[in-house]
Amino acid sequence: MTIEHDEPAGGAALARLRQILAAEEGRRTRVYPDTLGRLTVGIGHLVRPEDELKSGDVISEARVDALFEKDGARALAAAAAQAAEAGITSADFVVRLAAVNFQLGTGWTAVFPKTWALVMAGDYRAAAGELEDSLWARQTPRRVAAFQAALRQLSRKTNGN
Fold this sequence. Notes:
Blueprint: H1 12-25, E1 28-33, E2 39-42, E3 45-46, H2 61-86, H3 91-104, H4 108-111, H5 113-121, H6 124-130, H7 135-139, H8 141-153
Antiparallel strand pairs: 1-2, 2-3
């Protein structure tokens, strides 16, 4: 199964990403400071000035969904582009990669250049191992383990693939 770059925002990939992130991030209608003190609401949405929200404000379930649609679509688009660049067509991997983009931001490849280089080379087991001693792994070990498992499920690239 491959993911299409123009898959609609309401598609299966976004639904799966929502399921994963709701389990990992939680789903909150009250604005709260995250572990780094940044205001957050919904399914891991970092509050921006244009949201016009302050700590303790409560938003509707519909607004939680609207914020996620925008954030999730951005993470999925970045993941689809990254996967295409790396020659990876697994839809399941793209969704897990979108979760990484959602949590770390779309520039995560610059933060983990060695890991990304190994992904680009198709050495997925080594890429997974590269994350072992990272600050990210210490802060959110289950999320890193899920990404490592997704990497390890990919077939290693060989010359000509």
